[in-house]
TrEMBL record:
Its main location: membrane. Its EC number is 3.4.21.89. GO terms for molecular function: serine-type endopeptidase activity; signal peptidase activity. It comes from Nocardioides immobilis. GO terms for biological process: signal peptide processing. This is Signal peptidase I.
Length: 189
């Protein structure tokens, strides 16, 4: 019974460690290596395809590569950090500059967005999205990093405790085997 409980704890620890590692890879490492940017969907304007809490990874895109139906992330106001992720519903040409402009709309919204999006505002197109992981990404990159550091530290301590316990049990097993072997030698004629 005790061995089964120990095995179950070990399996659970590895599942948690590998799951957390997988989430970090999807949310941080892959976007960083690919030159993409992760964002967290915070509103329901793109339901059902991108519900709140979804991590969207946005890759840079040239304005000419954006077509109708492309989901883009763009600055709400040029030069400001706030962004939104909506689908392109119409492409036009700016009469003054000759640049393309984009009309966007959230999938769940009734009306199109009031302002046209200029190419300078576009951060990129959605490369991939992972439901629920956006909240984890906020912990990694946002102001609430303390809970993440506590969780990572706790997992690291737990993993260390498991390894030390396994090494101790292995050593005890060897000592027990040696003792049994010596007792066997003494008893044998």
């Amino acid at each position: 019974m005790r061995a089964a409980l120990g095995f179950a704890r070990l399996v659970l620890a590895w599942v948690v460690i590998l799951g957390a590692g997988g989430i970090l890879v999807v949310a941080v490492v892959v976007p960083w290596l690919a030159g993409a940017t992760p964002y967290h969907v915070q509103t329901g304007s793109m339901r059902p395809s991108l519900p709140p809490g979804t991590l969207v990874v946005v890759e840079p895109v040239e304005p000419e590569e954006i077509g109708i139906g492309t989901v883009i992330t763009y600055q709400i106001e040029s030069g400001r950090p706030e962004v939104t992720t909506h689908r392109v519903t119409e492409i036009g040409i700016n009469n003054v500059s000759g640049d393309r402009t984009f009309r966007t709309k959230g999938d769940a919204n009734e009306a199109v967005d009031p302002d046209l999006v200029r190419p300078v505002q576009v951060r990129g197109r959605v490369w991939y999205a992972v439901p629920y992981v956006g909240r984890v990404n906020d912990l990694v990159t946002g102001p609430r990093q303390v809970p993440l550091l506590v969780a990572v530290g706790g997992l690291a301590c737990y993993a260390g405790w498991m390894f030390v316990g396994a090494a101790r049990d292995k050593r005890r097993g060897r000592k027990q085997n040696d003792l049994e072997r010596k007792e066997g030698e003494l008893v044998a004629p």
